Amino acid sequence: MNIILGDALALALVTIIGFATHGETDLSFLPRFLAIYLPLSISWFLLAPWFGLFQHEITSNPKQLWRPALAMLFAAPLAALLRAMVLNTAVIPIFAVVLGGSSALGMMIWRGMYLFLKIKRSDT
Questions:
Q1: What is the reported pLDDT for 114?
Q2: Rounded to an integer, what distance in angstroms lies between the CA atom of residue 40 and that of residue 115?
Q3: H/E run at residue 41
Q4: Domain boundaries, the chain
Q5: Based on the number of CB atoms within 10 Å of its own CB, is 22 exposed (0-12), middle (13-18) or buried (19 or more)?
Q6: How confident is the model at residue 124, as a pLDDT?
Q7: What is the rounded distance in angstroms from the CA atom of residue 110 to the CA atom of residue 19?
Q8: Which of 47, 63, 83, 84 could cysteine-pair with 91, CB 3.0–4.6 Å?
Q9: Full pLDDT tens readout for the chain, 124 residues
Q10: 82 vs 22, 96, 117, CA distance in Å?
Q11: How far apart are CA 80 and CA 91, in angstroms?
């Protein structure tokens, strides 16, 4: 799977899980889903290249799995700010913290799976 597509799907899954933890899983949450998914994706794809997250040397090295988490800790506050601007509301600091932590964990899990599959494929 393409790493960029995987990143987008991982961000979507983490966002859906976030809504599910608040009991919001019907289609009426879709506009609110987009109100965080789009800013989060924009923030991620703006900042990830600066952390080398699309370079082969980084994506194929298990010792570099900390990078997606660090990048997300910068992307999440930017996403919270973009979300607040779109919704014309204030930035909620705890939302930015939870968004950063959960998204960092989600990206580390996805990137770890990607790395595992990449290594397994190269061994065969």
A1: 94
A2: 23
A3: helix 30-47
A4: 3-123
A5: exposed
A6: 65
A7: 19
A8: 84
A9: 699 999 999 999 999 999 888 887 777 778 889 999 999 999 999 999 999 999 999 999 999 999 999 999 999 999 999 999 999 999 999 999 999 999 999 999 999 999 999 888 877 6
A10: 22, 11, 34
A11: 6
Q: How far apart are CA 89 and CA 117, in angstroms?
A: 42
What one-letter code names the amino acid at 46?
A: L
- Residue 104: how many other CB atoms lie within 10 Å: 20
Show the DSSP H helices in 52-92 as ranges: 56-59, 66-87
For residues 40 and 79, the answer to whether their CB atoms sit within 8 Å is yes
Identity of the amino acid at 116:
F
3-state secondary structure of 64: helix
Distance CA 86, CA 90 (A): 10
Residue reference for tokens 């800790």: 73
Type of residue at 24: E
Q: Hey, what are 43's tokens?
A: 């923030």
